[in-house]
Write a structure and sequence with these properties.
22% strand, three-stranded antiparallel β-sheet, alpha+beta, 107 residues
Length: 107
Amino acid sequence: MDHDILERVLGLLMAEHPPSRNRSFDRFNEPDGQRVYRLYRIYLSLLAELEEAAERPEVRVSFSRETDGYRLLIEDDKVSYRRNCLVPSVLAEPFLERLRALGLETA
């Protein structure tokens, strides 16, 4: 994946105020901007899912290092749910911070 796009996604994830596609229409209007915003929304939903997992003891979370990033695995046997995602190394910082803040294990 393009490193520049991931850096832009990281900037959005780390921003104090969440971006709005409507308020920043010009910023997200071109194809790269649309891709940045789409990836931002995907990784933002993963971060939100970690928040939910921390409140539910039956949900297992693992975050392990791989050669091209980190593997995030969220499992809930109660509802037969499993989410398996690769978080690129560039985007690892907000995930590691969130996992530490929530007291969830990291491998």
